[in-house]
């Protein structure tokens, strides 16, 4: 690593340490109840990585409760995820650090942020070698940091994906799209079969909640 690059990383670490202050240890970081039912340990385990694809709104929903309950969060390499969208989905902007374009050194930036913030979301900017993955995983475990990856990541604690999604809210040709119902599928090395749950994201308040049961279709009798 060049001297200027090392200086930039050191400066970033210093600034983040000033923001975060002393970290509060927590066995599991909370998530919305509808997601808790699908995840190992009913939350985000410190020191573990999770993959989240392809929904940016689902990723922000995972950041919402930890940020509101005191955990600093960072989003690295996702320029389309702005502050307004994060706030609408319940993220506390006072505890959110956005690094839209980390450049080719995205992995070093991610590792630096993971040293001092408890939750880091990243979209990989390239392939990662097995050695780089192992070193970052060790750092996550040492610091108790949760890594949310929008993409592929080996040895993830769990992988979350959106199977189907439908918007509602428009009636009789007018109105606004207000709610989106989706089926979230979670796979994990801790169980054999995926777990699925149907939820609203956003719901009528802009957050994530379990979707009401779908009405059964009437069968014709004849």
Strand portion: 25-35%
What is the count of β-strands? 9
Q: Give the structural class.
A: alpha/beta
Largest sheet: 9 strands, mixed
**Rg of Cα set:** 19 Å
N→C terminal distance: 77 Å
The residue-averaged pLDDT reads: 84
| DSSP summary: helix tally | 6
Whole-number tally of structural domains = 2
- The H-level CATH homologous superfamily of the largest domain, spelled out, is P-loop containing nucleotide triphosphate hydrolases
Low-confidence stretches: 21-25, 171-177, 218-222
Main sheet strand line-up: 3-2-4-5-1-6-7-8-9
Order of helices and strands: HHEHEHEHEHEEEEE
By CATH reckoning, the class of the largest domain would read Alpha Beta
| Principal-axes shape call | globular
State the helical fraction: 25-40%
